[in-house]
Design goal:
OB fold (Dihydrolipoamide Acetyltransferase, E2P); 3 domains; 15 strands; SH3 type barrels
Amino acid sequence: MAINYNGDITVVLDSQHRTPGNLRAFVQATLRSIRTGKSSDVRFSSTEKIEVVPMVTRKMEFSYKDGEDYVFSDPETYETVTLSPEIVGDGKFYLVENAQVTVTFVEDKAVSIELPSSAILTVADAPEGIRGDSANNVQKTVVLETGISLQAPLFIKTGEKIKVDTRTGKYMERA
């Protein structure tokens, strides 16, 4: 959710409701400012009122990388949005051309992206499995087209497409 905090629009990254021993309950929240991009921990009393700012989500496709930034386009209107590496975060390891993502906007400014639960990526480098090395579900390290390394079964070869879980970064199956 997005809230108005001290005259600045912020996105709530994390929140926890706490009730310590004999003290009053409070909510501990991590907020990221849309204007500056800085995160801060804030403590709200449980009775404090906050102003919620509406958020809009849109399905978009990853188009290309422009220097450090990532460019996404709306498949219906072909409108493009450029996002910084801080907003994309670890999602950069799962972005290939035309990958579908959900971009969240607050006051027409992109604040976060949400990846699908899995992505299909091509194996860029996979060392050969050693003969006789197949005792129990033996894994080898493979490098994917986006530069991420992960553990995959011995039968995976360079050039194959595999399905990767974007939440854990683990191999799921051949694609």
